[in-house]
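Team,

Forwarding the record for the chain on the shared tracking sheet. I've put the sequence and predicted structure together so nobody has to dig through attachments.
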Amino acid sequence: VIGTQQWMSNNLDVAFYRNGDPIPQVTDAATWSGLTTGAWCYYNNDSTQGSSYGKIYNWYAVNDPRGLAPMGWHVPTDDEWTTLTTTLGGAAVAGGKLKKAGTLNWTSPNTAGNNNSGFGALPGGYREIFGAYSNININGFWWSSTENFLSVPIYRYLEYTNGAIVSNINNKKYGFSVRCVRD
């Protein structure tokens, strides 16, 4: 519990939509880049990464009407991410309070990473539009369920060199982590 919100303690790691339909695991880079439907993968197609970082999902999975989050949970909106950030003192400092402390997972120096919030954010990296993987142990990226006025999804990210949390937009074909919030 952080302020008035209850967040999952780990990144999402589901392979089925809420209604029981499977979410396809896509390991092939060319297939990933051509998707316009939901999919997931492990970083670098390495299932051992899942125990620490969860699965990586494209935004089509996040936005699928069958529901990515388990019953009682949902993928946070951009406003809900903003509420979390504000509760933790603003974007310039909230990232450090979200990041798991130390350099076991985060690349040194993991600036300001103290996990004072209990969120335990880890740098699971991402999968880019053409299917390559990047930035594990350097950045953590999390989707919101919100699109901007150009229908481009909004996400949040943390990096090892500062204590900020940053809001940005990216292509729906990218693969990021998902952290859910209680309904």
